[in-house]
TrEMBL record:
It comes from the Bacteria. This is Short-chain dehydrogenase. InterPro entries: NAD(P)-bd_dom_sf, SDR_fam. It holds the Pfam family adh_short.
Length: 296
């Protein structure tokens, strides 16, 4: 896989960083694209940077190349495209909508400008990335496109309307692209993590990656938390699968692909958020009576 070239859009932190690093572990060249650099912060106001992610990619065994890119700005994405000689994997993980989402307010009472900002950050950025970068894959006649979302079906879980529209829109984008691109030898799909243990989530829980289990006392469902590397290993498995086209157009999850490819998280376990969710929320089992180890 040393010849593999990937672009991870939104690779500064969270899932994007985990995916970039795991592609790097395959020996791939990974263009780490995002807005936050060591000299310029994004509106997310987080400390993680694309340079840090690129260093982690290189440390993992690949070649990390940091590219400052705002995917809502076409000129930025076109400049990224100009740096590429080929493109084997495109991971569309741009989000940046958290500061604008209000899950506790009815839509008609919410700030419509923030709702539109969520749409622009979460949907328009993905469309711009696809429109600009897909022609390279079409010319090659090969490639893998991963649209990172939240959830693997259209069930509404009470989140804010703009958030739901973005995440379901990403799944529908993957479905449509899967249909359109399969004739060109390209596989497009959507992928969701489970209960992601991102940097922001750890900070919010006042724990670190080393002691994250201490936060289970605050939220029992955190017992199923998975590191960003878990979904990264799902993407790495897809990138190595010669029959990856069978997933075209589907909405997949880290836990479903774990069952298929048998990869593990960084702690050696295999968290199965889907089975936990079905038992707790589907069957009504009391999570406090369950042994989390039986789901990992």
């Amino acid at each position: 896989m040393a010849d593999l070239v990937a672009v991870v859009a939104g690779a500064t932190r969270g899932c994007g960083r985990g995916i970039a690093v795991e592609l790097g572990a395959l020996g791939a060249t990974v263009y780490v694209a995002g807005r936050t650099t060591r000299t310029s912060a994004s509106p997310m106001n987080r400390p993680e940077t694309i340079e840090d992610t690129a260093d982690l990619v290189t440390k993992a065994g690949g070649r990390g190349i940091a590219v400052r890119c705002d995917f809502s700005v076409r000129a930025d994405v076109e400049a990224l495209r100009a740096r590429l000689d080929r493109l084997d994997v495109l991971v569309n993980d741009v989000w940046g909508g958290d500061p604008f989402v209000d899950h506790g307010t009815p839509f008609w009472e919410s700030d419509v400008d923030k709702a539109i900002a969520v749409h622009r950050n979460g949907i328009e950025t993905h469309l711009i990335a696809l429109h600009t970068l897909l022609p390279m894959m079409v010319d090659q006649g090969s490639g893998l496109v991963v649209e990172v979302t939240d959830g693997d079906d259209e069930t509404y879980h009470g989140v804010a309307l703009p958030y739901y529209l973005v995440k379901s829109g990403i799944r529908r984008t993957a479905q449509a692209m899967g249909r359109q691109l399969s004739a060109h030898g390209i596989t497009a799909l959507a992928l969701t993590p489970g209960f992601i243990r991102s940097e922001a989530m750890l900070e919010g829980m006042n724990v670190t990656e080393e002691n994250w289990r201490d936060a289970i006392a605050q939220d029992i469902h955190f017992a199923m938390a998975e590191s960003p590397h878990y979904v990264g290993r799902a993407v790495a498995a897809l990138a190595q699968d010669p029959d990856v086209g069978r997933w075209s157009g589907q909405s997949l999850s880290s836990w479903r692909l774990m069952r298929e490819y048998d990869f593990k998280d960084v702690d050696g376990t295999q968290p199965d958020w889907g089975r936990w969710y079905e038992d707790v929320f589907g069957k009504g089992l009391d999570p406090h009576t369950l042994n989390p180890d039986d789901y990992r």
